[in-house]
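Weekly structure sync - notes
Attendees: PM, LS, DV (DV joined late)
Agenda: review two folding runs queued last week.

Item 1: First target. Sequence and structure tokens pasted below for the record.
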Amino acid sequence: METTTSSTTAQIIDKDQLLTHWLGHRKVTRRTLEAFPEKDLFEFSIGGMRTFAQLTKELLAMDGPTAKGLATDEWEAFDEEKTELTTKAALLSAYDDATSTIEKYWKAITMEKFQEKVVAFGQYEGTGYSTLFYIIDNETHHRAQGFVYLRALGITPPNFWEQY
């Protein structure tokens, strides 16, 4: 008698749940950006750290381009200067555009891409998933800096656990 076995790959979350998680972090970061008074967004820092506007520009240089790079293997040059973004409204608009870019390219990222080696921005070498985790971790790190700035300014930051 011949027996056959079937195997399934267990996973913790699926691709769409990962996107929901990433976008949840972005929602909190956007609320953090909204909480800043415009002047302080571009001028306030502590201990020589960059302003939250500068940190946001770094996120903009990475988030949408990472989704596009994972989907197309076309990686933009890393540009965090974004000198055209001189107002809070411009930063918020660019942030929303980056979220749209993530959503647009997400469906084109194959499951295999997460396991492949990639070189993001010509400098970061890792797998697709390690690159994405770096991007999410980097955003969380910079948002935490923004939380410290807001508290120093006497402003209560948004609840980090309200991601969805």
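Item 2: Second target, run right after the first with the same settings.
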Amino acid sequence: MTPAVLLYLGAPAVLYLITFMTPAFGWPLAGALVLLLWRAMRSGDGDGGPRPPTLFAAAWSLPVLALMGFGTDHFNWDWIKHWALLNTLEAQTWPVQLTLQGEPAFLRFYLGAYLVPAGLAYLTGWSIVGCTAVWYGLGLALAFEGLGRGAGRLASLVIPLFLTMGGADGWMQTLLRPEDRPISFTGFHHEWWANTLLDHPLQYSAPLSQLLWVPHQALPCLLFVGLLLRLRRPADIGPTVLATGLLALWSPYVLIGASVLLAAQLLEPPDLRHALRHPSLATTSCGVFAAVFVGLMAWTLSHQVPQGGLCLDCVGERLTRPGAYVLFLAVELAIPALILRGRLVQNATSVAALAILTLLPWTAGSVPDAAMRISMPPLVYLFARSALHITQLAPRRLAPAVMAVATLSGPTAWGEATFHLEGGARHAALPAHDPLAARSYVVWARRSDYAVTEFFDICGWKWRPQYFSSTPPPTWPGLPTTPSSR
């Protein structure tokens, strides 16, 4: 599946380089990427060339798509943004420039998940909803196919196990609620349970929550982890490095976590270390392209970068009250700790994942995005390893392992699924002063034709700098002086 994954991750990058970048370096890089993708498709790098996902993997993408909202027509709060950006990309000339609040605005948000469905809808006249569903469905099928590789006789158990895994958030939110405010597992989003203990917004999202709220970042993360789990031979280095570099367009935060895991994976096995010292032309080409592409995206996205992210100055104060942070980590990492036990520290990649997840809570800033998204690759990797390990257990140990997952994180997954099926109805039924009646729980995207101005009117204009700069990024081509107001 490596060639298919590279094609999926690389298609938006080709579009971006041609349309958003100055032609002097955008077009040559697009040509180089097309050549690398063509080589991967032709050779398969020992993976047999691109193949469609199995029916089982494709079938599992359908219920996840339905939970996203494609089956119910109500999408969670984050989808107001997703639809607004998708509609803008479909309607506007690329690179996108608008007038917002009387000022020029240049779209510089990471666009990997949006460019293909928006471009397809524009060229064909098809529904943006349908194009997005097909694009995300294909990504889900590829991700689930990659996860199931090497699962052995119980491959059909890997995907549902993986989607059930997460922290014991449901239990904690229920236990921490005041006695006069009972809560059930059904229909509630549980992942902000630690806010009152930590005095700052922090959550580690379970794979299912990642896919339902932020599929534009979760899908490339799952695809990367699938490649990482299969990185065993020198021939796999180039494609995996290339895929990692392409994450810069999809999610730079995911790229940070993924890069640490990739480095750990490459530095441990002797044959991979030897291949790094004596790289082939194919590996070198992939590495050079990935480095240049990451550099260009960093140059683009750092232009008028908004404040937020991490807070290194907060570490000292938080170390004076470690109990809440230790509890947070214990709750979120209970599944891999119980399932993998000693195997959790048997390889460098797992140790790197644990190190990232352990450090992030102490450094998380007031804007939660950095910690929430950097944590995605290590979380997904550890949950994927746990699911694969369970499928290889002897029958007498299989049932207790499955029961542990169902007991600890099952309520969290059940709450998330029913929360989306019910459109947040149980949160909306709570008194207005209840913290679980927050806007992000009760305001839903009930349509798919939002404009950018509606997105900011609903969610807040404070988010404008995260998505738009007031001057075009330095890597963009020359633009007309009068942007559109659409």
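Discussion on item 2: The chain is about 65% helix and 0% strand.
Action: LS to circulate a short write-up before next sync.
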